[in-house]
Specification:
With about 230 residues, the protein is mainly alpha-helical. The protein contains eleven helices and no strands.
């Protein structure tokens, strides 16, 4: 007989956003009035992971304003952000729990109809918005890079290889590591590497004590659900 899940575990599962929730979240992001420039759903997901990987917890008052506008400009008071913020908080909690347990999670990566020059989108082009969101978090919350960049070259390379090298300023060691990597041939491989890199970074930035009686579990590595 299986042990019943704890109330906390059950609560975490209930927080998971459905596809319809994600569609609604994107619609709410699209509805933020100009001149504000909100993140899109995929960028938001990478951004939240970047926020959660900081060595010290980032207060909601610091990270949440960047959702409605990337530069955290105030959204007009007449626009109700409560429904958007409620969905964002649920995803934040879902990712926080998965990263804390070193569990697999499904990054919000959406297949593109085409890439550059009307050609089919490559895996790197498809995951680039997620990575751009992660990089946005690193820009606004530099504690992780300031304290641990030298020990995170390999997982950061798995992420930043999808960005334009010209965007990687003063990052010679990172660029050198990226040049040793082959571009992912399949989208599934690129998505799996997003999770793998996130959990590897968590091992450094959010370490947890291994149980004394057994070895710590290996990171999950399974194809993303579609």
């Amino acid at each position: 007989m299986k042990t019943p899940p704890s109330p906390r575990a059950a609560s975490t599962r209930q927080q998971a956003l459905t596809e319809s929730d994600i569609d609604r979240l994107q619609a709410l992001l699209d509805a933020v009035p100009p001149p504000c420039e909100p993140l899109d759903a995929s960028m938001l997901d990478g951004y939240l992971c970047g926020v959660l990987l900081q060595p010290r917890r980032v207060p909601e008052s610091r990270w949440l304003p960047h959702v409605g506008d990337v530069d955290a400009r105030p959204v007009p008071a007449s626009h109700d952000l409560a429904p958007l913020h409620a969905l964002v908080r649920r995803r934040h909690a879902e990712l926080d729990a998965a990263i804390g347990r070193r569990d697999w999670f499904d990054p919000w990566v959406f297949e593109l109809d085409e890439g550059d020059d009307d050609a089919p989108a490559t895996p790197s082009q498809t995951v680039m918005p997620w990575v751009a969101g992660f990089a946005t978090a690193m820009e606004f919350f530099p504690e992780l890079m300031r304290e641990h960049e030298a020990t995170l070259i390999e997982p950061l390379a798995l992420l930043y290889r999808h960005l334009d090298p010209e965007d990687l300023e003063d990052a010679d060691a990172l660029i050198e590591e990226i040049e040793t990597l082959e571009p992912p041939e399949r989208l599934e491989e690129a998505v799996e590497d997003l999770v793998r890199a996130t959990l590897l970074i968590a091992d450094v930035a959010r370490p947890r004590a291994a149980p004394a009686s057994r070895r710590a579990p290996h990171h999950p590595a399974r194809p993303p659900r579609r």
